[in-house]
Amino acid sequence: MQKKKPSISYHKRRVIVAAVAILIAAIVLWIYTDSTNWRNDTVRQEDVHYCNTSDKQQTLDFYRPEHSGDQTLPLLIYIHGGGWRGGSKRNGMINNYGQIFIKQNNAVASISYRLNSAHPYPDQNNDVACALTYLTAHAADLHIDTRKIILMGESAGGELASYAALHGPSQNYRYAVPAGVIDFYGVSDFTRIVNSSRPDLNARRFLGPNYTQKAAEASPISYVTSHAPRFLLLHGENDKIVPAEQSKLLHDKLVSAGVDATYIRLQSAAHGFVGPELQPSTYKTVLDSINGFLQETTGR
């Protein structure tokens, strides 16, 4: 019996699947690749060592509008994602939103940190705390308003931003508690993902071999109090990497503690979205929510 030739629709499906795969790969590459093109009217300080070491991973970039002079500005601090074991402080995320913040007359810092698995938890958290300590200590020199600091991160960076804001400084770190946090699809509760039916292997690697014992300690949600800063949580409903439930859980815990928190679940968005690649109406929702959050938190 002669085999039937594959139908045209079958070939079309294969082409569509391949095209989608290429698009997703391109978006991920854009998000995590080390490349940032800034406006010409931006003053830059790049690869500043923030923790008294020569480690290139313990550096930050600092940007402010050239026209601002010595004016004291709000500061947006970006923490990149990448599963705690990859990523760059110069990527599509900071390239997109950083320039928006600069245009609104804010200062911007972007942090690198030591990566897993050579550096398991809590090294990444400590690096973020060290960077925040540096920025707080040099606030006068950098002309930044420590009362108007906002942390922003995506994925692993969202978790690190939330942890730094909720846990607060400890040990040798002394930094200004941020006024707000913008968390793009970050983990809030490790206890729900390291021992689930489909465990998050990146989270396990991050926490180390004793991940079950460390899960609650490392979870931002464990440190929610009524003194927490304002939160904006953005999550795609089609996220297959970090369940949207993670943002909802943190939102509900914050609200129950009396904290001002907003949770936005974005239709058709998956893990790793930046914004411009989304449907125009969805991206507008992202921009409007961020601009509203900034206006209410810093007056910008």
Helix content: 25-40%
Please compute the radius of gyration using only Cα atoms.
20 Å
Count the E strands: 8
Terminal-residue CA separation:
72 Å
Uncertain parts? 17-33
Q: What is the chain-wise order of helices and strands?
A: HEEEHEHHEHEHHEHEH
Describe the largest sheet: 8 strands, mixed
Q: Supply the helix-strand structural class.
A: alpha/beta
Number of helices: 9
Question: Mind telling me which CATH architecture this is?
Answer: 3-Layer(aba) Sandwich
Architecture overview:
The structure is a single chain. The chain is an alpha/beta fold. The chain has a single domain (8-298), classed as Alpha/Beta hydrolase fold, catalytic domain (Rossmann fold), CATH 3.40.50. It is built from nine helices and eight strands. It has helices at 8-32, 92-103, 123-137, 139-142, 156-167, 201-207, 211-218, 245-256, 280-298, and strands at 42-49, 59-65, 73-79, 107-111, 144-154, 180-184, 230-236, 261-266. Helix 3 packs across helix 5 and helix 6 (201-207) crosses helix 7 (211-218). Mean pLDDT is 91; it is low at 17-33.
List the helices and strands and how they pair.
Elements: H1 8-32, E1 42-49, E2 59-65, E3 73-79, H2 92-103, E4 107-111, H3 123-137, H4 139-142, E5 144-154, H5 156-167, E6 180-184, H6 201-207, H7 211-218, E7 230-236, H8 245-256, E8 261-266, H9 280-298
Parallel strand pairs: 3-4, 3-5, 5-6, 6-7, 7-8
Antiparallel strand pairs: 1-2, 2-4
